[in-house]
Amino acid sequence: MSLDDVLRWDGELTVTRHDPETGASFVIRVDSTRLGQAAGGTRAAQYPSLAGALEDAGKLAGAMTLKMAVSGLPMGGGKSVIALPAPRKDIAPERWQRILQLHAENIDRLNGTYWTGPDVNTDSADMDVLNETTEFVFGRSADRGGAGSSAVNTALGVFEAMKATASHAGLGSLDGLSILIQGLGAVGGRLATLAAEAGARLLVSDTDFQRLSWAREFGCTIVEPDAVSTTPCDIFAPCAVGGVIDSATAARLTTSAIVGAANNILADERAGDILRQRGILYAPDFVANAGGAFHLVGREVLGWDDDTVAQHTNRIGDTLIEVYAISEAEDITTDAAARILARRRAAHSQPVGG
Ligand code: NAD
Ligand code: PPY
């Protein structure tokens, strides 16, 4: 996609900054503030081009708008990306601190139009650093008065999504099902434990072999990263990166359902069409992975306690059943159906103070 195409975006705001000293480029994209101040995490990664970073931030911000709306949370959608000059693990601590400080300055200038939080390659400790410069931060550590990591609750929500989707796809309970988890990180690792406790047979894959050590001890089947899309399973759970299902992958997958934590699992609309034609039930990611947003916004904006966060997270399965009903009634993909449900729920939602 050309830079012109990337900038011809229907979101509300794009902020970019490059810092020659650290080599980092910063992007903040606010997709919508219709339901409230925009929120979404900070992703740090290497990108082949600044256009690629902008495009990713825009798609991720759009997914946050849908996630907030379908979840009934009184916030809009945004996201930020820090395009790194080297892999995150190779960035020295002092340089990383400086990068975070610059990012926090950019966020602070928006004066609350955009609130950040943890995402890929940023955690609660990083949120604490951002919070030294700006107040517009979710997910600080508990010692600093924040809600901490959202990963545990995201995993709980994906687990609810998986149970509802398995049942709707005619697979019954998770007991005895083969579940292939791609990415055994903060969310995928916890999801693996929950699925194993429910009696599922686990197949797991990660590009970081250290993440696989406990899985080996646990008796999981290890799948090579490039064999994921050709390995048969009952449920495929992408919990690593987005865009893993393009048209070719959708045509190749041997599974009955797809339920994962990654944002923007489908590379394009066509992939969703192919899954539907092939009878593979896809749980839209912005519905299935909303447990993290319930945790962060629920705790830090709405003053929810653990029980209230859990009640909302447990309803992710019910929301998906509504999505599947719309998809069947309208003869459309589950992704299109979830967008309809998000619009309907947004129409009835009130921003905080509204
Ligand atoms: P993480 O960085 O802790 O884990 C990701 C894991 O995926 C890592 O172990 C990494 O080595 C692995 N990985 C990367 N590329 C891979 C590949 N091609 N094949 C197999 N494994 C690969 O991240 P996380 O917090 O567990 O989040 C996982 C996904 O869920 C991300 O896409 C994130 O945006 C999304 N998500 C997370 C949350 C949350 O609360 N943490 C909320 C919503 C969405
Ligand atoms: C996501 O759910 O993808 C996030 O980016 C996490 C998040 C959720 C709500 C506020 C800030 C960050």
UniProtKB/TrEMBL annotation:
InterPro entries: Aminoacid_DH-like_N_sf, Glu/Leu/Phe/Val/Trp_DH, Glu/Leu/Phe/Val/Trp_DH_C, Glu/Leu/Phe/Val/Trp_DH_dimer, Glu/Phe/Leu/Val/Trp_DH_bac/arc, NAD(P)-bd_dom_sf. Gene3D superfamilies: Leucine Dehydrogenase, chain A, domain 1 (3.40.50.10860), NAD(P)-binding Rossmann-like Domain (3.40.50.720). SMART domains: ELFV_dehydrog. It comes from Mycobacterium kyorinense. This is Phenylalanine dehydrogenase. Residues 149-354 form the Glutamate/phenylalanine/leucine/valine/L-tryptophan dehydrogenase C-terminal domain. Signal peptide: none annotated. One of its GO terms (biological process) is amino acid metabolic process. Pfam families: ELFV_dehydrog, ELFV_dehydrog_N. Keywords: NAD, Nucleotide-binding, Oxidoreductase. Belongs to the Glu/Leu/Phe/Val dehydrogenases family. The active site is at K79. NAD(+) binds at G183, L184, G185, A186, V187, G188. It comes from the Bacteria. GO terms for molecular function: nucleotide binding; oxidoreductase activity, acting on the CH-NH2 group of donors, NAD or NADP as acceptor.
